[in-house]
Structure formats: structure tokens, C-alpha cells
Design brief:
The complex is a heterodimer of chains A (201) and B (104).
Chain A (H helix, E strand, L loop, with lengths): L1 H27 L5 H14 L2 H13 L1 H9 L1 H7 L10 E5 L4 E6 L8 H4 L4 H4 L1 H6 L4 H7 L9 E6 L5 E5 L11 H5 L4 H5 L8
Parallel strand pairs in A: 1-4, 2-3
Chain B lengths: L27 H15 L5 H9 L3 H6 L2 H15 L5 H16 L1
Classes of the chains: A mainly alpha (201), B mainly alpha (104).
InterPro entries (chain B): CN_hydtase_beta-like_N, CN_hydtase_beta_C, Elect_transpt_acc-like_dom_sf
Protein name (chain B): Nitrile hydratase subunit beta
Pfam families (chain B): NHase_beta_N
């Protein structure tokens, strides 16, 4: 095991070195501005993430008219809150109900709605989830600690380069009268991918 | 295209590994790779379909055995070599330079 681990660390450091070399060449040739990389990293590390999607969900829970707009034209309704752009150009919102549970995968790669959820977690991009979500969704959900009633229909949606999905989770019980801000705190990233539920207060 | 990337429905690829409180990036090179992808895309070196095609050109065993952003690195270097911006020889030479400088 020790040798395997060392090999892997060696491989990682070669990859890091290669990335450094590529960046240095692209900068030297005027093709990439390192300060622009810093800005992009900061944006996706600190500003764009699942809190955006949580605000969309909370608004849909609190405002029936917004919910209608969101389910009819996800792209436009999400844009109302300012969350549009790269890797979220076309959005479809999938409504979880007492009889239907939706979950999202990208079997071919890692397509994910960046403006509402940020960058995807590693498990979403890795082979086990991508391969199995479409043939054994209940088994996959069990690995996330999620069990659905036997009669509940599961719909699995395979995202692609042009179209991205956001799950609208069911509103938890006991949240009547809560403000949108408080509701947003209950919305987890996993609930918007469909591998979890919203938290209960 | 029927490549290793088309993995929907495959068996035997193991359990899902969820990392609690996962950071957005796991290493500095991932940050740099992410930023370079966006800038090279914005600079017209490839479009999204070309980029995915580039990842699908990885040998299957390498694809399965590598980290996510290594797929991106593979595609980025394939396209900047294809359009003549940066050659593989330049990358290898620069790696050697950096390595020697950092060892000094």
C-alpha cells in the first residue's frame, strides 16, 4: 500500500508541475492573464455556489406565482434572481412531489448548473455515480442515506452541455410562515441534485 | 461516440465516495487548471463540444485512473497543441526548467 500511495503522490506532483508549465507558457505567449485566473477562482470559491440555488428554491416555496414561472421557464425565472450565465444557459427545474422524486446525473461528463449550484463535488464527476445513477437509482440514493417509499416514482435526468437541471425539493413540514431567508437555510446542495432532502427546522 | 466517458449503465465502478464539507478545489493546480480552462475557452481555443471530445481521447485506463481536472488538462493541452499555441515539446522543456529552478 505504501508504494502505491507514493506512486500516486508522485503522479500528482507531476500533474501539478505540468499545469504550472502550461500556465507559464500561456502567460508568456500572452494567451492567459494570471490575475484573471485568480479572479475566476475567487468567484467560484467564494461567490457562486449552492446558496444561489437555495434562494431560488426558497422563493418558489414562498411565492406560488414564482413557482409557476420557475417550472414553466426555469431559465427566465432563475435569471430574475440574477443567477444566469456560463454553464447555466438553459435551465429546467424538476419538481419533487409526494409521488415523484427527481435526481440529476451527467453520465458523460460533469454537466452541472454552475450559476445556481457552483462547481460540482467530486462524487458527481466520478465514475461510480455517473455509471450507476441511471440503472440503480435506489441503490445510489441508499448510499446517500436516502430511502424513498416503494411506490414513489424516481425520474433520473441526464444533463448535457446545453441543458442543466435543478431539482425543486419538497418543502419540509413545519415551515409554514417562515421567511424566504429562513427557508433558504433548509435547502441543501444535495436536495437540489436529488440525492437528499431539504432539512427540517 | 462510444468511449469510456459514456459510462451510464456500467457495472463494477465501485462505491460512491462522498467527502464531507468538500472544498471547491483540492489543490492549487486544480485552481490554475480551472481558470485556464475558462480563459482558453473564452479565448476561442475550443468550444464545449471540442473540449469534451478532447477528454474522451484519453486512453480508457488513464481516464479511469486520473483525477477530474487531469481530464481537463488532457483536453486543454491537446487543443493548444492542435492550434499551434503550445507544443508538447515546449511543455516538457518548461517542466524541466521549473523543476531545476525549484530544486536549486
Amino acid at each position: 500500500m505504501g508504494a502505491v500511495h507514493e506512486d500516486h503522490n508522485h503522479h500528482r506532483s507531476r500533474v501539478a508541475l505540468r499545469v504550472k508549465a502550461v500556465e507559464s507558457l500561456l502567460v508568456e505567449k500572452g494567451l492567459v492573464d494570471p490575475a484573471a485566473i485568480d479572479k475566476l477562482v475567487d468567484l467560484y470559491e467564494n461567490k457562486i455556489g449552492p446558496r444561489n440555488g437555495a434562494r431560488v428554491v426558497a422563493k418558489a416555496w414562498a411565492d406560488p406565482e414564482y413557482r409557476k414561472r420557475l417550472l414553466k421557464d426555469g431559465t427566465a425565472a432563475i435569471r430574475e434572481l440574477g443567477y444566469s450565465g456560463v454553464q447555466g444557459e438553459e435551465m429546467v427545474v424538476l419538481e419533487n412531489t409526494p409521488t415523484v422524486h427527481n435526481m440529476v446525473v451527467c453520465t458523460l461528463c460533469s454537466c452541472y448548473p454552475w450559476p445556481t449550484l457552483g462547481l460540482p463535488p467530486n462524487w458527481y464527476k466520478a465514475a461510480p455515480y455517473r455509471s450507476r445513477a441511471v440503472i440503480d437509482p435506489r441503490g445510489v440514493l441508499a448510499e446517500f442515506g436516502v430511502t424513498l417509499p416503494d411506490g414513489k416514482e424516481i425520474r433520473v435526468w441526464d444533463a448535457n452541455a446545453e441543458l442543466r437541471y435543478l431539482v425543486l425539493p419538497e418543502r419540509p413540514e413545519g415551515t409554514e410562515g417562515m421567511s424566504e431567508e429562513a427557508l433558504a437555510e433548509l435547502v441543501t446542495r444535495d436536495s437540489m441534485i436529488g440525492v437528499g432532502f431539504a432539512k427540517t427546522p | 461516440m462510444n468511449s469510456i466517458a459514456d459510462m451510464g449503465g456500467m457495472h463494477g465502478l465501485g462505491p460512491i465516495r462522498v467527502e464531507e464539507n468538500e472544498p471547491v478545489f483540492h489543490a492549487e493546480w486544480e485552481r490554475r487548471m480551472f481558470g485556464m480552462f475558462i480563459l482558453a475557452f473564452a479565448g476561442g481555443h475550443f468550444n464545449v463540444d471540442m473540449f469534451r471530445y478532447g477528454m474522451e481521447q484519453m486512453p480508457p485506463a488513464e481516464y479511469l485512473g486520473s483525477d477530474y481536472y487531469e481530464h481537463w488538462l488532457h483536453s486543454l493541452t491537446m487543443w493548444i497543441a492542435a492550434n499551434g499555441s503550445v507544443t508538447e515539446e515546449e511543455i516538457l522543456a518548461r517542466m524541466k526548467e521549473i523543476e531545476e529552478r525549484e530544486a536549486a
